[in-house]
Amino acid sequence: MTQRSAQHERTSRWAPWWVYLVLILAANYLRQLALPFGTLPEWGDVLLAVGIAAVLFVAVTAVHRATRRQ
């Protein structure tokens, strides 16, 4: 494997940054609509937001890697 193809393999492991940003922001906007401020304690709201972001990050990465191999 050449250095160029090895570098391309490393850079293609992650989806573009804007995909993560758009999906995480959209999910948090929907979360705010479903659970308005004050519905949960602040620590619960933070944990939910971080959990949603983590799940979306893993899901986007998995989908990106699965589609790049084809």
Structure, explained:
With 70 residues, this protein is an all-alpha fold. The chain has one domain. Helix content is 77%, strand content 0%. The protein contains three helices and no strands. The two termini are 19 Å apart.
Highlighted features:
single chain; about 70 residues; mainly alpha
Please give the structural blueprint.
Blueprint: H1 3-11, H2 17-34, H3 42-68
So what's the overall shape? elongated
Mean pLDDT over all positions: 87
Termini separation comes to 19 Å
Give a count of the beta strands, DSSP E runs of length 2 or more. 0
What is the share of helical residues?
Answer: over 70%
Describe, in short, the structure shown.
This protein is mainly α and 70 residues long. The protein is built from three helices and no strands.
